[in-house]
Amino acid sequence: MATPLSDTPQSSLKTVAVVGLGTMGTGITEVLAKAGREVIGIDISEAAAAQSLAAVESSTARAVERGKLTEQERADALARIRTTTDLAAAADADLVIEVAPESYEIKQQIFRALDDIVRPGTILATGTNALSVTRLAADSARPERVLGLHFFNPAPAMKLVEVVSSVLTAPTAVSAVTELAVALGKEPVAVGDRPGFVADGLLFGYLNQAAAMYEAKYASREDIDAAMRLGCGLPMGPLALLDLIGIDTARTVLEAMYAESHDRLHAPAPILKQLSEAGLTGRKSGRGFYTYEAPGSPVVVRDALTPLEGSVQAPGREVRSVGVAGSGTMASGIAEVFAKAGYDVVLAARSPEKAEAAKARIGKSLSRSVDKGRMTAEAAAQTLDRITPAGSYDSFAEVDLAVEAVAEDLEIKQQLFATLDKVCKPGAVLATTTSSLPVVACARATSRPHDVIGMHFFNPAPAMKLVEVVRTVLTADDVHATVREVCGRIRKHAVDCGDRAGFIVNALLFPYLNNAIKMVQEHYASLDDIDAAMKLGGGYPMGPFELLDVVGLDVSLAIEKVLHREFRDPGLAPAPLLEHLVAAGCLGRKTGRGFREYARR
């Protein structure tokens, strides 16, 4: 008969054994000791145990220097830690946290041995991020007291802890470790048992797609990483993050995810296997997607794939005046960017009234910049004077660069490009700001497709630093060079990519958002827990559902459909829940309701 766990409240989890004293086990040990728990650190290697204790001593000494701990608090925390190579020492523990290598065989051996060592009410937690908690629990003599407790690296700094239940886990065990996590100053989220749980389940699919994008030579490693940092506000690009995590670790997690989901998006990109088997596992080996100064060093050094700084490309065309077509937020933002950089700008809309309204919007934006001290009133006035509103595209007759920012509708854009072809002078560069439509389809609407290129700005254009520069197979070299030079003058970071759905950012961002929706749809985790997991565990500025509601569910669905249509991958099919919300008119903040409800203004 199973032993009930009703006698294991959080307050009784005073002594905790940590099995496996690598980087994660050491971090967890420090967190527990600083929070007043007695910690038994266990590792098969005496050297690893000694190194772990030394690492905690060093880390807590730094905390004292920074004023985060007193000398007495440090001394008390260190006094609460004892290390050993004997697993039998776990007999004194109320909770055991296993953080051994990601291997079923190793973890099963530990759990079977613990069955004969610990008290009947002791909770056994695995720190796995890739293996089945249910499978480990089923092999235990008392599966009801086995669960997952997934900390994030570095454990002392990262707030997120995923509390993972199997179908066998007793609710009292979940409650006890959840309360402990809160007492440790962490933010626990409750998740079910599937590979990757929430944070890694969403993160590793995205990382895998980035690796596949790089492997296909669609964009350089530097451009992929810069695009996701600047376009999404992420702390690191995906390829740099893979190097930090360890390419071999990422491959292990993805293999486990694919075994469970059979989703091609989780099938490890072949380059991950190639790099792993070559020993090029990232920072820890000194080389992965990038090359590092030394094994373990964060300093990237030049290698054969590093772009040459100041490399000479084809000379561009002279650009003195710019035409911006459109009257919406994106068009006015782009016009403001060009005018601030000293270009004469013609802002053309379908009517003089719309053009004047767009210029007035720019005036308000510039006034806000003045109020915030970002520019002088004189500079704002000069910027606004450079913008000429017009009610006809005939006003583009003398511009050197025409940028369209009209509705995301291919037929509308093609009609506009046919008009630009007629009114713009020979040699003018014609650019589209589309985020999801084929640039070449706009180019083919003209008699000069070699003059057409994509310039995908991000909203709000004055604030966002990224521009995706999209070459078609027909774009002339000097047109590409012109746009790169212009991006430098308007102080934007240009990344190069080819003409395929989603370019870099949307092609990586929206499958991640779609997978988050599927998690909610399958009742795997709540909106709030998923948003918290990605902000706390992944460093994302917004959770996926916050972002979806800001972007607009209709816009998100349209991009998902374009990606699915282009790549024909079943895993990219829009989640039915997204389609249902759009059909119901729940489009996000702009309608007052999306995944969440918002107060009407």
From TrEMBL:
<feature type="domain" description="3-hydroxyacyl-CoA dehydrogenase C-terminal">
    <location>
        <begin position="502"/>
        <end position="598"/>
    </location>
</feature>
<dbReference type="InterPro" id="IPR008927">
    <property type="entry name" value="6-PGluconate_DH-like_C_sf"/>
</dbReference>
<comment type="pathway">
    <text>Lipid metabolism; butanoate metabolism.</text>
</comment>
<feature type="domain" description="3-hydroxyacyl-CoA dehydrogenase NAD binding">
    <location>
        <begin position="15"/>
        <end position="193"/>
    </location>
</feature>
<dbReference type="Pfam" id="PF02737">
    <property type="entry name" value="3HCDH_N"/>
</dbReference>
<comment type="similarity">
    <text>Belongs to the 3-hydroxyacyl-CoA dehydrogenase family.</text>
</comment>
<feature type="domain" description="3-hydroxyacyl-CoA dehydrogenase NAD binding">
    <location>
        <begin position="322"/>
        <end position="499"/>
    </location>
</feature>
<dbReference type="InterPro" id="IPR006176">
    <property type="entry name" value="3-OHacyl-CoA_DH_NAD-bd"/>
</dbReference>
<protein>
    <submittedName>
        <fullName>3-hydroxyacyl-CoA dehydrogenase family protein</fullName>
    </submittedName>
</protein>
<dbReference type="InterPro" id="IPR006108">
    <property type="entry name" value="3HC_DH_C"/>
</dbReference>
<keyword id="KW-0560">Oxidoreductase</keyword>
<dbReference type="InterPro" id="IPR013328">
    <property type="entry name" value="6PGD_dom2"/>
</dbReference>
<dbReference type="InterPro" id="IPR036291">
    <property type="entry name" value="NAD(P)-bd_dom_sf"/>
</dbReference>
<feature type="domain" description="3-hydroxyacyl-CoA dehydrogenase C-terminal">
    <location>
        <begin position="196"/>
        <end position="292"/>
    </location>
</feature>
<dbReference type="Pfam" id="PF00725">
    <property type="entry name" value="3HCDH"/>
</dbReference>
